[in-house]
Description:
Layout: H1 26-41, H2 54-60, H3 63-66, H4 71-88, H5 96-113, H6 122-135, H7 147-161, H8 168-184, H9 190-198, H10 210-221, H11 223-239, H12 245-264, H13 273-279, H14 285-300, H15 304-310, H16 312-319, H17 327-343, H18 345-358, H19 364-372, H20 379-384, H21 388-396, H22 403-425, H23 429-435, H24 438-448, H25 451-465, H26 475-487, H27 491-499, H28 510-521, H29 530-545, H30 551-564, H31 567-577, H32 583-600, H33 605-615, H34 625-633, H35 639-655, H36 664-670, H37 677-693, H38 702-712, H39 717-727, H40 733-747, H41 753-769, H42 771-775, H43 778-790, H44 813-831, H45 838-854, H46 867-885, H47 888-895, H48 898-902, H49 910-925, H50 946-962, H51 965-973, H52 976-984, H53 993-1010, H54 1016-1025, E1 1029-1030, H55 1034-1058, E2 1077-1078, H56 1082-1090, H57 1096-1108, H58 1205-1221
Antiparallel strand pairs: 1-2
Helix pairs in contact: 1-4, 4-5, 4-6, 5-6, 5-7, 6-8, 8-10, 12-14, 13-14, 13-16, 14-17, 17-18, 17-19, 19-22, 22-23, 22-25, 24-25, 24-27, 26-35, 28-29, 28-31, 29-30, 31-32, 32-33, 34-35, 35-37, 36-37, 37-39, 38-39, 39-41, 41-44, 43-44, 44-45, 44-46, 45-46, 45-47, 46-49, 49-50, 52-55, 53-55, ...
Amino acid sequence: MVSQRVMPQLQSLKFKEKLLGKTQSSDALIKKIKTLHSEMSMMDQDTVNTKSLATVSKDLISQQIMLHRDKGVKAYAACCLADLLRLYAPDAPYTAHELRDIFQFFFRQLITGLKGTDSPWFSEYVYLLESMASIKTVCLIPDLPHGDDLTSEVFRDFFELVKYDLSKKVELFMSDILVALIEESPSLPSGILDILLAQFTSKAARLDYPTYRLAVDVCKSTSDRLQGLVAQYFTDVIVQHDTEIDEKDDVKAAHELIIQLNRSCPALLNNVIPQLGEELAVDDVALRTMATQTLGEMFSEIAGEELAKKYPATWKAWVTRTRDKSTAVRVAFIEACRRLLSHHNSLSIEIESALQSKMLDMEEKVRAATCKIFSQLDYETALHHISVELLKALSDRIMDKKTSVQHESLNSLGQLFRLAYPEIEANDPAAVAQFAWIPSEILRAAVRGDADIKLGAETTLSQYVLPLPTKSEDESVWTDQLLVIMRHLDHHGSQALLSLSPIQGRRPLLLQSFVDACTDFNGGIIDENEEKITARFNSAVQQLSVRFPDPIKAAEDLRTFAKLNETRLYKLMTLCMDPQTDLRTLVKSMNEFSRRIEQASPSIHDTLTGLLRRSSLHFINQSSIPTLVRRVQRHDNDPEGRDNATKILEHISKHCPAIFKAHVGEFSKALSDEENVALVGVCLRALGAVARWNETCAPSDKRTIDKAMRYVSSQHGSLAKFATRLIAHTKNKAILCEQVVEKITRNLRIVDDHCLEAHLCVLAEIARSAPDAFEGKSDVIIAFLIKEVLVISPPRDEVNLEEEWAEGEEAPREARLKIAAVKICVNRCLSHAGLPSARDVVEPVLKLLFAILDNMGTTKPNLEDHAQVKARLRLQASHSLLKLATNRLYSSAIGQQFINVALTMQDQSFQVRMGFLTKLITYLQDRTLHPQYHIILFLTALDPEEEIVMRARHFVVAYMQRSPAEIRLTNFEMTLPRLLYLIALHPDFSMELESLKDTSDYLDLYFDIILTADNIHLLTFLAQKVKSVRVESHTKSENLYAVSELAQHKIRTRALRHSWSTNAYPGKISMPSDIFRALPSSEVAAKIQKTVYLPEEKIEWLDQQSKLTHVKPVAKTRTGTITGTRKRKSPNVKARRRTKRRKKASEEDSSSEVDPDSDGEDSEDPIEEDTELPSSPPAKTDDPDEGMHSDDVPTKDTKLGRGAPRKAKTLAAQTTKRRSGK
């Protein structure tokens, strides 16, 4: 049976009332149209009888209804028309013109009716909008007359309407309508794309703005249709742009639009991204820069990784912008890398490689931009997405030659460390490995860098690494911060950190001298002694200003400050520099000073606050002492913290015991903890330092003195020494010290070596601090030292020549005993310095010291001893000679064998050379040695360790920069003849080419630093003048003349290179009479002047060698980090040298006891920041060392003493042979 399909019965409209009529009211008409709308809205399109709709279809489009004054009539009429279009679909019962009028009618109702939900007809307007969106009746619009205009009008109206904070449902209906219009338009009107893209360029391009949300919805839904139009749009704007400024602005706006579209609707840009890749290769730099910035932003977005994979050619082209010829393009690339590092780990490998290469870019701006982006990273990104190697490369830029790069590198490192500090404090392994080394690099820069670098490093340290605490922070937290940082520093790093504090500066500090000068200067109003006060003020200004990168501006700032003449500012500065100022007062005073300076004269703020920071105890303060003592007391699992606290307290004891003044009682109390040897040692050292600084501050209670007396008898050398120092500065010091000397003298021959070492330390202290008590038994003590200590040597078969150096307690006891014996002798000499017996006391001691140097570490030529003992004794002997040379009387005697002292700078042991250099620099910066000692520094030119060369060079450079002209003249320029004399009489000097090459290196180091356009006339005259005198030997005189000719050649070469004039020096200068003799006659003088002692072919060979070995100035060369171990070179020193100089075995070997003659470590900084350099040369004296008359004849031939270099070489060769034989 075949079933027949039942056709549904058509439904006809039941509404029969007339809509048109002249007499009906608006309410009646609304009621009719509402009834009509209700019925039609329920009718189904498939079952409606459209013929029944003919009458109402015609009536609804009449002008009487569509132009009715009542909004309700028009609202319901629009709904009815929408129902009709739905029921008639797809064939509307109207003509094209009528449809155009209907749609215009629709949108007029929507624009006016949807602006607020308070309209009584709002639901009808929403119904109309929903009907148009769901039925897609707007698809008819593109085919209507002037459809493009109507479509554009709809877009404009909707984007205006959506601003009225409509509901999400209404926004979706509007989006559907606009999407339908785009999809059905055969050709999209040009204005529509402009309307859409305009929503992405305004400040309202955020998802909380409805216009932006509507544009995003429409673009996402129509991306396939729009992407070609978008590409054409950017092609028109970018590729075909004009070069006018306004057009450039349009291009910039277009690139910004691309960035926003990528964030919102990336599908629109499928055809645009390849265009951007092509832009990277255009000739226009501005366009390449914009494209680089734009792609950088796009790759940095969340979906940037997928974008790079989708467009690999564009990604590759973008990465290669690191090699763009334009600086602006390379900078744009660098700036775009920050977010890439944060968001995309897979892309960071290529980016990191690019960044590392750009840190060495030839352009300053590129290097600075590369360093800057690290300051913009968050902690997690820096920890997980940046390698340590890249951060190390960043730290290398601290030493960049450009200030902007230095600043950005330091600022980035400082901010990264501050971000990581909480994790470093918690000892997180990842944070420690990634960031804990940063302070070391900053400290290295602060110590080794020039004025720009030093100032920047100090600022970074104070702002990020060790900032002063806020008011709410506990003082112990601030002190612990210092200990945490020191935990990750090696010896050199700790020394550098401590050297930046004015603790070790001589007091009064230079800034205090400036404040005093300002007070007397009185703003320029001086009643009396005007010339003297002005000279003193100008000297203080000059010495302070040379410590800044721009000395001229710094001097102007200091003079401006002096003109302010504000007593409150002077008081605040004095308060900040006072060692007794506590932390709270320091913070308050520095803040007030900064605020007052900013208000009084903003232009001088940076200079004055920088000076105050350098001179205030902002790293270590007297408020730190209780916390440091507690850390030494604690028995916990932090030995490094305890050791560092001990190191700080020892440093204060040596350099600024005034800080301890308020804590004497605390130290005395801590002596009761006898089981804690480290604590007792620190307390005794502190109390001894305070007592020596100011005896009125020394503890006087019987309990403390009794404890100190017990410790004097201790077997711990350091405890006994500092306990002795304490009692030697108390009220009953004479009686107590006599008792000690008497007791020790009785037991010298019966105690064991361990106790003997402690006793000798006590005697050394008493010899210096209580000489009267020592002299009572001096004959017995000195005889014992000579017979039982200094001349004792181990059996020949037990001598160890392999190990050359050992530190501290690891050194053989024999070495420590002999060092103590030498100290006793030297201290006795120093205590007799002002007495008539001084010469008698010092002569045997000098003989002993020079014998030690002559015999390479033993008191007699035939003695055998361990290599460690000999090296330590050589260093001690050289230190002792330098200390004695600080006395004028002893300096005269030592000066007769000056060459022997100088040759210590070329000892075979690295530790001896470094220790000698360190002590020499300490005395030179204090100006306690004769000027001739400055020339020893230039003997470092041939040192196999660059660290020593750098140390000496840096000191000379800094000294020359900071010293007044008179000091430079006395210490470095006028000493040129002495340098030539030292070179000519060097035991290894000869006229062989290789030896002359060494001589050339010495002179190169000297002239590279000292020679300038201002002093070239003087140095030329001095070099020539050397050929007008002679020395004690004819051969050595000829050597001197050859060196003189080589020096003159070096000066001429530099004069030609720099285009300096070499006019004759107008003055008259006499040669030092202590080393030179006058020539016998004018005929001999004329002959010498005519004779050429250095053949031209040798000079040419030396010039060629200099070209082959020419390197950049060492001042900018990096010699390794403070924390890490430097790579060692094999000891390959030429055989002709005085003795085979061995290189250091390890970094740690030089880290301690380089100065066994001192109470603590020496400063790592060659010139202390607060070392005041006198403004005039020292006064002339009767000291024969200072004689400058050519007719003076030395009374004694200069003895080379240690001039058995062949023996030293033979010993070194034997040692090498034994090692190779093993």
